[in-house]
Write a structure and sequence with these properties.
Blueprint (H helix, E strand, L loop, with lengths): L7 E5 L11 H10 L3 E8 L5 E3 L4 E4 L2 E5 L22 H8 L4 E6 L5 H9 L5 E5 L2 H10 L4 E6 L6 H7 L4 E5 L5 H9 L3 E5 L4 H10 L3 E4 L2 H8 L1
Parallel strand pairs: 1-2, 1-11, 2-6, 6-7, 7-8, 8-9, 9-10, 10-11
Antiparallel strand pairs: 2-3, 4-5
């Protein structure tokens, strides 16, 4: 049986089993645990600052209260993720990570592509961009052809690789249960990578690795690292 290299170990929103997700402490902890890469989400504030946060609104006492686009960056201090842990800017995250891990940036909001590209250009970190909205991916590629991009897929399209090529992307982020050898072979034939998301099951890691998947994005980064040793 053919042996493939171990997949890239990607921490989904950082080590958030013990620390706030999408926070600098969670990202740094994931790297300490052995993550090769970090996957995070971005929006932007009303004054044009790119913020690392999954949802379009911030919460207080567990209730969504204000949309990020209606806030300034200085107002985010009113919405800490935990005691002493604030919602970070993308700039601060990239500076904190530096060259210790790759950073996969999922753009969640429309029309913030130039802001994200500017952060990447000014950063020391190795970055790639992906999105469910493939128009966003195509726009990022037009703004910054050198950056690696990826398309997110939930279901299995008739031709997922065609969607990837149409967006000018190099990474196919496919929901893990829809990945098979045929999909990986077709992606590899056009020099693209297949990244499985979000996989937290050891048996699935074994299956995906055996098929030659290039990366696994997981909520269980410590366990994935241990499994891959």
């Amino acid at each position: 049986m053919r042996r493939y290299p171990k997949p890239e170990r990607i921490s989904h929103r950082g080590a958030h089993q013990t620390l706030p997700e999408n926070s600098i402490p969670a990202f740094l902890r994931a790297i300490e645990l052995g993550a090769d890469a970090i996957e995070l989400d971005v929006h932007a504030t009303g004054d044009g600052v790119v913020i690392v946060h999954h949802d379009p609104a911030v919460t207080a006492s567990g209730v969504a209260t204000s949309r990020l686009v209606d806030l300034s960056a200085s107002e985010l201090s009113r919405f800490p993720l935990a005691h002493g842990v604030e919602i970070p800017t993308l700039e601060a995250v990239l500076n904190a990570i530096g060259d210790r891990a790759k950073v996969y940036i999922e753009i969640k909001a429309l029309d913030i592509e130039p802001l994200v590209v500017r952060c990447i250009r000014e950063s020391p970190a190795a970055c790639a961009v992906h999105a469910f909205d493939h128009r966003v991916v195509k726009t990022v590629k037009a703004l910054f052809p050198a950056v690696r991009t990826g398309v997110l897929e939930v279901a299995r399209h008739i031709d997922p690789v065609a969607s990837l090529l149409a967006a000018g992307a190099e990474d196919l982020w496919q929901e893990a249960s829809f990945i098979d050898e045929e999909l990986i072979a077709r992606a590899h034939a056009v020099n693209a990578k297949v990244i499985a998301w979000t996989s937290d099951d050891v048996d699935q890691w074994e299956t995906l690795s055996g098929m030659g998947v290039d990366g696994i994005c997981t909520n269980r980064i410590a366990e994935l690292v241990t499994w891959s040793l």
